[in-house]
Amino acid sequence: MAKLNNEQKEQRRQIALDYNKKKEMRYKEQFDKLPEGVRKFLRGYYRSDEGINSKLGQKLKKGLKNGDYKKPSEFVEKELGCIFGSVLPIGMKESLLYAVDNCIDSAYSYGYSRRPFRSRDYYFYAEKVHAIIYQYVVSGGLRLPFEQIVSGDITDEQRAYFQEFTGTLNEYDAAYSIDKKLPVTMEYIRELLQRSEERRVGKECRSR
């Protein structure tokens, strides 16, 4: 990609900001149509009185503890099915289900000595499950599958947003694309690694 001058960078940033405003307006319209219980569950990541402590949050914890839900994905499909095709594209459903079911691969807590605590019991990961769902649905970003983004199958506005706010990418969805070895994602990573190696070699040559 050709290097942009300052004026072009500013134009791209303005396009990204305008797109973000329209995107969030559309999102709010869809979010407000969700059932109240679902909205409370999704809004509550930073609120002690909602989210994991909402009725649905308590249902998640209780269900994982007593076996009503063998995996978090069962809760998502049964209780949060309305989010797909509204505030989250259908194309990200499998990624979200994969992410919540694989949360047990990470630590659910750290002790004072930073010793990680792990378990194969999903109950201990209820808050982690809620945080993952929150990131997919609420925390912003393009809300498009990573594979679609890196394939370039997006609008010019979306591309400007991606280039300006790469940090808003959903890392769980990116990890899903890598774990599943989706073809466009793997090619994208190979190109990144190749460019990185070329820059490293170039720096070595210039320093000699």
- Radius of gyration using CA atoms only: 20 Å
What portion of residues is helical? Answer: 55-70%
Q: What structural class do the secondary elements suggest? A: mainly alpha
Strand order of the largest sheet: 1-2
The coarse overall form would be globular
The overall average pLDDT, rounded, is 88
How many DSSP helices?
Answer: 10
Compute the number of strand runs: 2
How do the helices and strands follow one another from N- to C-terminus?
HHHHHEEHHHHH
Low-confidence stretches: none
Distance between the termini: 28 Å
Q: What's the main sheet like?
A: 2 strands, antiparallel
> What is the percentage of strand-forming residues?
under 5%
Oligomer designation = single chain
Explained architecture:
The chain has 208 residues and is mainly alpha-helical. It contains 10 helices and 2 strands, in the order αααααββααααα. The protein has helices at 6-31, 36-43, 55-66, 72-79, 93-101, 126-137, 146-151, 156-164, 171-179, 183-207; strands at residues 109-110, 116-117. A two-stranded antiparallel sheet has the order 1-2. Strand 1 and strand 2 (116-117) form a beta hairpin. Helix 1 crosses helix 8 (156-164), helix 5 runs antiparallel to helix 6 and helix 5 crosses helix 9 (171-179).
In short:
It is built from 10 helices and 2 strands, in the order H-H-H-H-H-E-E-H-H-H-H-H. The protein has helices at residues 6-31, 36-43, 55-66, 72-79, 93-101, 126-137, 146-151, 156-164, 171-179, 183-207; strands spanning 109-110, 116-117.
